[in-house]
Each structure stands twice: as structure tokens, then as C-alpha cells.
Specification:
Blueprint (H helix, E strand, L loop, with lengths): L2 E3 L6 E3 L7 E3 L6 E4 L4 H21 L3 E5 L2 E5 L3 H8 L3 H30 L7 H11 L5 H15 L4 E4 L1 H18 L3 H8 L4
Antiparallel strand pairs: 1-2, 3-4, 5-6, 5-7
Length: about 200
């Protein structure tokens, strides 16, 4: 019978073999584990949707600025390229890592783990991929990047006419879908499915 420590009072609680909706600590009543139905299927579907939105957000024009008859379109990666050209290498690298590479790595890890698990066929190094996913999660800062874009839109709106492109909407949806994909994931269930030891 598996044992789990309470995050609030450190009491070791024995978990029942049958899945329950919510498991509470025997001493303090804190939630130890919450069952999420169809966790793998829902997270997999949301991750696929996030990947499509990520491709759209990086492929189409992000913003168009109109000022005095002059129109300039930009893509999502244009800002990173401009920072690099202005020799702000650290800032450009940070934006690239936190807003492009980490989200892409998160989606790749989720797909690598969840797609085979849906058919009950875990792949090699899936446990390492899940650990990596848990370690890099704090570095995915799509929400902060989106907030920065909104602030910039408000400030630039006084100087020029800003026309949001399809990428802005795709990026906004990507933030929500990625958050949902991680939220519906049930880590205890995933660990149990990945650990094949008798």
C-alpha cells in the first residue's frame, strides 16, 4: 500500500488501492491527492492544441504598426532578433529561452510521455522527461511575455495605429491552453503509470 507525506503536517498517510475522488490527511484534513478523470487524454489533447497554436503564433504576423502611411509588420521572433542586433545578447537569450525554447520543450516532453501512455506503451527515458518537465516549468514565462505585449500595445497606441495579427490571438490562446494542459495533468497517476517496477 503506497504511503504519502502530508505537505502541511508531515504525517505519513497510507493511500488506498482503489482510486478516490479526493484523499485527505488523517490528521489535519489537507488534500493529499485529487483524482483528475481522463487526465492523460485531456492533457494530450490540450498539448496538441498548444503545439498548433505555437506554430501559428510563430508563423504569422504578430503586429502591424501604421504611422503616417507607413506600415510595418512584425513576427513574434522579430523582437528577439532586434534585441540581438542591438547587442543586448543576455536579454535576447533570456526572452528566447523563456518564451520560445522552454514552452516548446514542455510541449515536446508532454507529447513524448503522454502519447505512448495513452496506448499503455511507455517509452524509454519517460521518467527523465517527466522530471525535466517538472524542473523547467518555472522557466516557461508565456504569461509574463503576454502581459508585456499588452503593456507595449497600450503605450504604442498613442504613437501609431496598432493592428494585432493572428499571432497575437494564437499566443493568447496558447497561454490559456498550456496552463490548462498542465492543470489537468495528474502527476501521481503519471508516476504510477511510468513506474513499471513490480
Amino acid at each position: 500500500m503506497p504511503v504519502v507525506a502530508c505537505h502541511d503536517c508531515d504525517l505519513l498517510n497510507r493511500l488506498p488501492d482503489e482510486a478516490a475522488a479526493t484523499l485527505l490527511c488523517a490528521r489535519c484534513g489537507a488534500v493529499l491527492q485529487k483524482h483528475k478523470p481522463d487526465s492523460i487524454e485531456r492533457s494530450l489533447a490540450l498539448t496538441l492544441a498548444a503545439l498548433i497554436l505555437f506554430i501559428v503564433a510563430n508563423s504569422f504576423p504578430f503586429l502591424a504598426m501604421k504611422s503616417g502611411g507607413f506600415v510595418q509588420e512584425t513576427k513574434l521572433l522579430t523582437g528577439i532578433v532586434e534585441l540581438w542586433r542591438q547587442e543586448l545578447y543576455g536579454l535576447a537569450s533570456l526572452v528566447l529561452i523563456t518564451c520560445v525554447l522552454v514552452p516548446l520543450l514542455q510541449m515536446s516532453c508532454l507529447l513524448y510521455i503522454l502519447a505512448p501512455l495513452k496506448y499503455d506503451r511507455p517509452v524509454p527515458h519517460a521518467i527523465r522527461a517527466f522530471r525535466l518537465l517538472r524542473h523547467i516549468a518555472p522557466w516557461g514565462m508565456l504569461e509574463i511575455f503576454m502581459l508585456g505585449i499588452l503593456v507595449a500595445l497600450v503605450k504604442l497606441g498613442k504613437m501609431a495605429t496598432i493592428v494585432p495579427g493572428i499571432s497575437v490571438f494564437a499566443f493568447g490562446l496558447l497561454v490559456l491552453v498550456m496552463a490548462a494542459a498542465v492543470t489537468v495533468l495528474d502527476p501521481p497517476l503519471l508516476w504510477a503509470r511510468l513506474d513499471r517496477r513490480p
